[in-house]
């Protein structure tokens, strides 16, 4: 990945709220990140930290109401996806940006066979006719490692196991050779052994196809092996961002440090989960006016209650949103 | 699927036999005498002779198999004879109405078209109106359209046809004089004008019945669409770049129709039941009215046959609903 290359996807100041009866929920607050061509960006954070909402905001996939993308820009292919007309957005979705969701058991339509579901984007975005689309669909199933591809095109989702369904989802997301693949916890709903298989498949596909990937997970252990850079999210904000080695070697945000402690020592063992950090991620009923992590933080001080820390640039592509300077062991200068 | 359907068809035979028996015994035990409407001046001996002539002298275990034989064997034979000019029936005794003294099935055949014109038409109209209302109401939940749909459905649910029917007659026939209040069943459609007249006389009864159907089916459709609109696969379809019309009319609709088709199929028999009342109000001399008159006159063969046909309809519609379910939902495997 050439450093300084123009990002394929550039997100700035994204803010998404949900209008609920109890008031507005500030699910995504001023999130910015850039994705470079061909890189794999990991996004970590406990469940409820705003990872999915962020990604779905990019492509207008949130139901509105209740969701509303209030501010920000999403630059892709020279256009701001938050402002393009619906048809242009649809051409990006599934065409240039593929999406894989968390739960393969419910993400496929139960009443259409998988061939039909893979061929849909092929016919729309690549203008293939039925026969061409069928040929390509078969190739895609082979690409994601589903045996008897030609035969299985006629099968319905319920005839596939969870892992196989996620492979189908990946095939759909990759169908039109996207520049960007967004994978939202693609292995979370799967058994451990299947998780590893899907992970290997993704690594393999990425080196074959070379698209940029945003990989969402709440498992830093997974990220360590595959990501180039990582952003850590909490309370709908990016609290830390760094190249993967730097993040593991030199975590700056107390939340990141807590997350790192929860990585299970034996790889794949799931006994130690993220919930080991005391407390719950907040539900943001107000726009953040203080550090969202303050109540669970072991180094919080007065300022953390009064101001929301900005992302301090720490050099080497590393930044963290914390008033506490882990290097000096004291408060950061304003 | 085929074996399943055949198995179900076979299984429905004992069910229907049992239903026939229950209907028969209920009529047997019911008070009421087909002779009741005869002049009192008829002497008791003659009365007894007439009774025996009707076959009422025999005990039930003779008459019930007789009816079964007539219904399942003799009548189909006559039907085949009529259609192909054969002579299977060979003059066998048909089911005869006590009142009109003509074969029950001939009377039913006369009445059926009126009922089909009004009842079947109203069901088709009701469903065709209900489906788009349900779809749009769900897709635009809480919009003005949805609110209006909810309001009309509430009316359809809560106002019985004997009220809405009379109300329509008062407004459109008595006050405005736009539409005929009585359904002229002797009317023959043979040109444009007579077709228009047929439409005019159908409007009110069809609307009264359709209102009920629309109310129910549109609610089911709306609920089913709402269930499905929130599903993950809908998000997947959108993430693939599908247009809203493909998302809603292909992905969501196909899933939403699964339970609704069942409701529609199972609603067919009850709409025929509802026709009994509507036909009375609009003086449509269809099957409903025929049944009422037969009941009043203790015309047991007629009541028995119509009621049993209704039971057949119910059983068949259940079967059709299940088969359609299996066709629409690939997860269902009957075999
Ligand atoms: N439909 C919704 N209505 C209200 N709030 C929501 C809704 N969906 C998500 N949220 C809020 O957004 C926050 C972030 O959710 P999400 O992005 O799904 O988290 P995750 O990081 O686990 O993917 C949640 O904590 C919740 O408060
Ligand atoms: Mg999520």
Summarize, please.
The complex is a heterodimer of chains A (334) and B (335). Chain A is of the alpha/beta class and 334 residues long. Chain A is built from 12 helices and 14 strands.
Description:
The complex is a heterodimer of chains A (334) and B (335). Chain A has 334 residues and is α/β, with parallel strands linked by helices. Chain A has 12 helices and 14 strands. Chain A has helices at residues 51-58, 86-92, 104-107, 114-125, 130-143, 149-152, 162-174, 192-209, 220-226, 244-249, 254-261, 302-306, and strands at 9-20, 23-35, 40-44, 67-76, 79-80, 97-100, 180-184, 212-217, 229-234, 237-243, 312-313, 319-320, 324-325, 330-331. In chain A, the strands form 3 sheets. Chain A has an 8-stranded mixed sheet, sandwiched between helices. A 4-stranded antiparallel sheet of chain A has the order 2-1-4-5. Chain B has 335 residues and is an all-alpha fold. Chain B contains 11 helices and no strands. Chain B starts with a helix and ends in a 7-residue tail after the last helix. The relative contact order of chain B is 0.14. Chain A binds chain B through residues 56, 59, 61, 63, 87, 90-95, 98-99, 101, 103, 106-113, 120-121, 124-125, 156, 158, 169, 172-173, and chain B through 230-233, 235-243, 246, 251, 254-255, 258, 328-331. Adenosine-5'-diphosphate binds at residues 18, 20, 25, 27, 45, 47-53, 66, 283 of chain A.
């Amino acid at each position: 990945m050439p450093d300084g290359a123009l990002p394929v996807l550039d997100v700035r100041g994204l803010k998404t709220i949900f209008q609920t009866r109890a008031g507005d929920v500030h699910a995504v607050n001023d999130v910015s990140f850039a994705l470079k061509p061909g890189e794999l960006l990991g996004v970590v954070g406990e469940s409820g930290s705003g990872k999915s909402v962020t990604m779905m905001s990019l492509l207008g996939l949130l139901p509105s109401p209740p969701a509303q993308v209030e501010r920000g820009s999403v630059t892709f292919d020279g256009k701001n996806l938050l402002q393009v007309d619906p048809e242009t957005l649809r051409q990006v979705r599934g065409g240039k940006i593929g999406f894989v969701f968390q739960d393969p058991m419910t993400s496929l339509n139960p009443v259409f066979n998988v061939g039909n579901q893979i061929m849909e984007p092929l016919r729309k975005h690549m203008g293939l006719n039925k026969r061409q689309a069928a040929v390509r669909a078969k190739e895609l199933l082979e690409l994601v490692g589903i045996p008897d591809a030609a035969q299985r095109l006629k099968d319905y989702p319920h005839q596939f196991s969870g892992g196989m369904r996620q492979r189908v989802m990946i095939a759909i997301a990759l169908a039109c050779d996207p520049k960007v693949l967004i994978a939202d916890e693609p292995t979370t709903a799967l058994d451990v052994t299947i998780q590893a298989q899907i992970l290997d498949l993704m690594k393999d596909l990425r080196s074959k196809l070379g698209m940029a990937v945003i990989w969402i997970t709440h498992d830093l252990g997974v990220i360590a092996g595959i990501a180039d850079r990582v952003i850590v999210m909490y309370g709908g904000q990016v609290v830390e961002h760094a190249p993967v080695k730097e993040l593991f070697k030199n975590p700056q945000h107390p939340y990141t440090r807590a997350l790192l402690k929860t990585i299970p020592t034996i790889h794949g063992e799931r006994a130690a989960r993220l919930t080991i950090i005391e407390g719950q991620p907040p539900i943001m009923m107000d726009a953040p006016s203080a550090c969202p992590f303050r109540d669970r933080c072991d180094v919080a001080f007065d300022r953390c209650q009064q101001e929301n820390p900005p992302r301090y640039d720490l050099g080497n592509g590393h930044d963290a949103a914390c008033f506490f300077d882990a290097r000096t062991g004291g408060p950061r200068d304003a | 699927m085929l074996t399943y359907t055949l198995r179900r068809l076979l299984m429905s035979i004992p069910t229907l036999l049992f239903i026939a028996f229950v209907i028969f015994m209920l009529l047997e035990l019911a008070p009421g005498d087909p002779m009741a409407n005869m002049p009192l001046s008829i002497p008791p001996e003659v009365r007894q002779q007439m009774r025996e002539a009707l076959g009422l002298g025999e005990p039930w275990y003779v008459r019930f198999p007789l009816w079964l034989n007539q219904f399942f064997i003799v009548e189909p034979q006559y039907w085949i004879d009529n259609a192909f000019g054969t002579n299977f029936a060979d003059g066998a005794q048909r089911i005869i109405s006590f009142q009109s003294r003509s074969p029950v099935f001939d009377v039913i055949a006369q009445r059926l078209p009126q009922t089909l014109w009004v009842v079947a038409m109203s069901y088709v109209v009701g469903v065709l109106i209900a489906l788009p209302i349900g779809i749009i109401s769900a897709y635009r939940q809480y919009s003005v359209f949805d609110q209006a749909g909810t309001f009309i459905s509430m009316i359809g649910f809560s106002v019985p046809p004997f009220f809405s029917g009379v109300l329509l007659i008062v407004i459109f026939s008595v006050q405005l004089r736009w539409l005929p209040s009585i359904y002229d069943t002797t009317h023959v459609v043979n040109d444009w004008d007579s077709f228009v007249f047929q439409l005019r006389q159908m409007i009110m009864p069809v609307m009264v019945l359709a209102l009920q159907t629309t109310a129910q089916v549109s609610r089911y459709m709306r609920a089913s669409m709402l269930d499905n609109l929130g599903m993950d696969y809908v998000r997947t379809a959108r993430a693939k770049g599908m247009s809203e019309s493909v998302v809603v009319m292909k992905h969501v609709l196909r899933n939403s129709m699964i339970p609704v088709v069942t409701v529609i199929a199972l609603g067919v028999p009850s709409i025929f039941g509802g026709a009994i009342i509507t036909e009375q109000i609009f003086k449509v001399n269809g099957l409903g009215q025929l049944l009422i008159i037969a009941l009043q006159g203790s015309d047991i063969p007629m009541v028995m046959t119509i009621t049993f046909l209704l039971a057949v309809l119910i059983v068949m519609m259940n079967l059709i609903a299940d088969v359609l379910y299996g066709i629409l939902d690939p997860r269902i495997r009957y075999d």
